[in-house]
Every structure is written in C-alpha cells, then in structure tokens.
Design a protein that fits this description.
alpha/beta; 12 helices; 6-stranded mixed beta sheet
C-alpha cells in the first residue's frame, strides 16, 4: 500500500477517538472494549496494519528530525494497568532513538514541589525535530491531586490561590500553556487510554499470579482502584476542559491492547503527516561543495 493510502487509513481510524471540543464530551459514550473496524478474528490483519504504521511512522519521524523546525509532544494518561508502557514501546519501536525523548513522571520530588505544577514537565519538552513522550504529565495535578486534595498541602500553595476555583484555574493554565507550545512549533497530542474496571482487575490478577510480572504490582494500585468513580469524573472534567483543536485528546479504548496500539500509532501518523514535512532542499552552493568533496575522495 502506498504512503498516501496508509496516511488516509490512519486518519480514518484515529479521528473518531479525537476530542477537539470537550464541551459535550461524556466518558460513558466511549466503550473501553471497542475495536473499531476490527473483530477478534481480524487480529492478524490488525498486527499487519500496526507493522505498516510503525514503518511509516519511522519515515515521518526521520523527516521531522531532518526538517528541524517542528517538535511533537505525546502525552499519555491512564489508570494503572491500562497499557501506557506497552503502547509507547510498540508504537515507537521503529523510531530512531536520537529523535525521541521520553520522560516518566511519578510522585513529585521535594524540589519539584517547590515550583509551580508545570515546572517539572517544562524541563523535558522536546527539542525541534524530535518527538517527546510524557508517561503521565502535569495532568496528574488535575487528576490524582483532585481525587486526593490533601496533596495540595505538599505543594505549599498560598491560601489565597487554594480556593474552590483552583481546578478551573489549572485547566485554564494548561490550555494557555499548550497553546503557547503550539504557537512555538510544538504539536501536542494527548492520549487517555480508557480501560474498564473489569479489565483492570483481570490485569492486576495476572500481575499477582505471574512471578515475571510481580514487580509491576503495587499495593497502592488497589488503594487507588477504590477511587475509580472519582477518577472517572476527574478524567471527564479534564477532557471537557482541556480538549482543543490544537491539542486534542484521544480517548482510546484500552481493553484490547492490540487495538489501543493501532489507534495511538494512527493518531501520531495523522499528526506528523499534517505538518507536510519534507527533507531540507540542498542549495546550489551545497551541491557544488558535494561535487568537490566527491572529486577529492575519488582522487585519493
């Protein structure tokens, strides 16, 4: 299949899951077990589509790197065991490591807590020509912190800015920050991997029963699971407040990992192809220099 047709297929597959205006978004309308145009019998075809997508993604990333004008920031958010690490690993498997920067954000350090909530992520923004990946991000501060508001105490905020409107203020700050990035040539794409509660339970049990996966499990995962409803409300509020045309959310069904990876790859292809990238044009002077270099080498 030629490049243009692959791009068209990627756009058609990913765009139904894009939220560019969150005003009417409802999380309950997204089925975590959805597999789009694929059925279980189509898994081999889906894996083939993913392999084609990864190959195309590698080509687009190479052009992004050579072009050296734009950068791309991919943000991944999800409940535990939704498959963020696996999606990042598989989708970016064909990308040149030199053109990719990955940052994972866990519990903030004391230094990070002494700064504004965007600070620790700003330090890891991708350079021009590169794809930056955030495994969790500043969105934790309107998710985990919103579900556990006592965590605000650790952020040592002045009382004057800790009123009821703090979440709306943070949503506004995030929208402005992402627009600022877009204004400076950073394309932002955000992914919420939407796993069901039943599927999360299944994956937790697999981690407990399989010795090779024991290290992935934490007792804290069960504690957070008890707040499932609060997290779903927080995710819905977050998407409603921060989904825009310039930095959309992709709410990706995550009960079937093979489908999740296809949609993520398709969305990244869509984003990169929209930039109309091309390799730098060689000037006449550069061509003359190349001819001179070739002549010198052949004369040795």
């Amino acid at each position: 299949m030629n490049k243009e047709k692959l791009i068209d297929k990627a756009c058609a597959l990913s765009r139904p899951y894009a939220v560019t205006d969150g005003a009417s978004f409802k999380l309950k309308k997204v089925d975590p077990s959805d597999t789009g145009p694929f059925s279980d019998e189509d898994k081999p075809k889906a894996r083939e589509a993913l392999a084609e997508g990864i190959e195309l993604l590698a080509e687009l990333q190479d052009t992004l790197y050579a072009h050296d004008r734009w950068s791309v920031l991919l943000i991944f958010q999800a409940m535990d065991a939704a498959g963020k690490d696996g999606a990042i690993k598989h989708v970016m498997s064909g990308v040149n490591p030199q053109g990719c920067q990955v940052a994972s954000f866990k519990v903030p350090s004391s230094e990070e807590l002494d700064h504004d909530f965007l600070w620790r992520c700003q330090r890891h923004l991708p350079e021009r020509g590169r794809i930056g990946i955030f495994n969790r991000s500043y969105y934790e501060d309107v998710l985990v912190v919103k579900v556990h508001p006592e965590l605000l105490d650790k952020q040592k905020l002045p009382d004057a800015v800790r009123g009821k409107g703090i979440w709306d203020t943070r949503y506004k700050d995030i929208r402005h920050f992402e627009q600022y990035l877009a204004n400076n040539g950073t394309i932002v794409r955000k992914f919420f991997l939407h796993v069901s509660r039943d599927e999360q339970k299944k994956r937790f049990l697999e981690r407990i029963e399989d010795p090779a996966k024991n290290w992935k499990f934490s007792a804290g995962d069960i504690a957070e699971r008890a707040h499932w409803k609060s997290y779903m409300d927080a995710y819905e509020d977050m998407i409603q407040a921060t989904a825009t045309k310039t930095s959309p959310w992709y709410v990706v069904p995550a009960d079937n990992k093979w489908f999740t990876r296809i949609v993520v790859a398709a969305a990244v292809i869509d984003a990169l192809s929209s930039l109309k990238l091309a390799y730098p044009t060689v000037t006449r002077a550069q061509k003359d220099a190349l001819h001179a270099a070739r002549a010198a080498l052949e004369a040795e």
